[in-house]
Amino acid sequence: xxxxxxxDLGAFLAIARHKSFRRxxxxxxxxxxxxxxxxxxxxxxxxxxLVNRTTRSVALTEAxxxxxxxxxxxxxxxxxxxxDLNNYRGQPTGALRINASRSSAQLVLLPLVTKFLAAYxxxxxxxxxxxxxxxxxxxxxDAGVRFGETIAKDMIAVPIGPRQRxxxxxxxxxxxxxxxxxxPEQLRDLPCVRLRFGSSRFYAWEFEQGGKELAIEVNGPxxxxxxxLTVQAALDGAGIAFTFESHVASLIAQGRLVRxxxxxxxxxxxxxxxxPGRRQVPTSLRAFVDFVRGVSEEKxxxxxxxxxxx
Length: 310
Known about the structure:
Elements: H1 6-18, H2 21-28, H3 32-46, E1 51-53, E2 58-60, H4 62-84, E3 94-100, H5 102-119, E4 123-129, E5 143-147, E6 155-159, E7 164-170, H6 172-175, E8 193-195, E9 205-209, E10 212-216, E11 222-224, H7 227-235, E12 241-244, H8 245-253, E13 258-260, E14 267-268, E15 271-276, H9 283-309
Parallel strand pairs: 3-4, 3-5, 8-11
Antiparallel strand pairs: 1-2, 5-15, 6-15, 7-12, 7-13, 7-14, 9-10
Helix pairs in contact: 1-2, 1-3, 1-4, 2-3
């Protein structure tokens, strides 16, 4: 049997990760037809079908899954070996892929990445926004950004940005027609903008006061999958929205939104940058982690100096 080209095997792994020729082609910077040709080469040389394809789906066969399981660690070792050479460079280089929720990307990640790229011009960063929790290892991300309580215990987590607080808001026009809720339970009887991530269940709004925690499943005629759109829906008078304080502080100050249940809105520990600790950390990621920690320390030092001057 003729040896199989390593690039074809890499193409197979990309197809296996994404279960999509188009998304795998986007990752590798080629065309879906080129990937199809590479896969056909492997299957013909092995005389084994690795992937079942229809017009609607791509799935690994039993043989394909077994090959993926054996190849993936080997390719990670090769990537780590090549990455290790970056330790001999004067400046970190390479690409950094980060998966983040829209809120974390907008509130904390993007401002930091912009400053980081200015300091490390040889590094490129791709931010992929995804509200659903993904496996950053299997989906070929270097790191992710989420709230601390959602991160798996085997990940290394680094605080990124300040604490975050939720806010319940609606337009003045909405509250001219509906009563302002005094307790979270009263939201069940008011039109709310519901939030659902992907195909999962509706998000239950979380509240806390004096150690008492509540999760309220609200009702309403409008359901969205994008947290940013809930603010626009509230501005348009569609209902009451659940969002982050940072998103709407200026709108509340301008009188365009009215806040309710403020004393029931808790602070969260904030977002964390997380990455797997069981494999070698790419130099580009290590540089970004150090950069994040440095920015955090600068802010803490500035806060301590401000407190001493009072």
